[in-house]
């Protein structure tokens, strides 16, 4: 396997606040149209991730909310939680930082044509699903699509412009635990798992495939519920983003029993994860 640990330069094109301590960034690969080293970026897949590199600070993994286009521009949702993201929040438009990627196994996009799909996202878990939702809506390649997005409160709602568009295109269930100052005609009280019976009832037939991303506890509870409901664990996909550091299976930070999250994932089927005892890691 050939790979490089040397970051490529990327420019901060713009950003805006999009949720509590969260920003949506747009980056551009420098000289993207002049270098063969960017070929892999233009072949990035929905659900893959990249390493954002801040010189002298460190690296952190992020998923694409929008895949690189022909000009080398791409987007990522970033929540300020550590030294790397703190340093990024101090950057200005026009600053040049670094990135490595794309890495990992994305969503099984090629297998979804004409299927009945259920997407469940919690918190920042909406980020690794964003580019997929856009693709599905743009191509209309599904038979039925229902989306659940859960957040703790109004302040933690993310990808607000994108969600506004999605809600006009497909059935979209926004679930919020703290309903203070929220309209119950637009939002549902509770949790992602709690609303699943209502969402599943909306399907004419059982979903063919389920895609889940968010806090591990939520993902596990949702997967267990859906498997008990009768959905094949091989058809339930989770995006597991834990402790990824080198991104190429060398450091062992993301080791999960016999698997590496960075190379074998970040997307796994529930059937793959159950024997790995993810809830005990």
UniProtKB/TrEMBL annotation:
PROSITE patterns: FAD_FR. InterPro entries: Cbr1-like_FAD-bd_dom (IPR008333), Cyt_c3_hydrogenase_gsu (IPR012165), Dihydroorotate_DH_ele_sf (IPR037117), Dihydroorotate_DH_Fe-S-bd (IPR019480), FAD-bd_FR_type (IPR017927), FNR_nucleotide-bd (IPR039261), OxRdtase_FAD/NAD-bd (IPR001433), PyrK_electron_transfer (IPR050353). Belongs to the PyrK family. Residues 5-109 form the FAD-binding FR-type domain. Keywords: 2Fe-2S, Electron transport, FAD, Flavoprotein, Iron, Iron-sulfur, Metal-binding, Transport. Coiled coil: none annotated. PANTHER family: DIHYDROOROTATE DEHYDROGENASE B (NAD(+)), ELECTRON TRANSFER SUBUNIT, DIHYDROOROTATE DEHYDROGENASE B (NAD(+)), ELECTRON TRANSFER SUBUNIT-RELATED. It holds the Pfam family DHODB_Fe-S_bind. Its cofactor is [2Fe-2S] cluster. This is FAD-binding oxidoreductase.
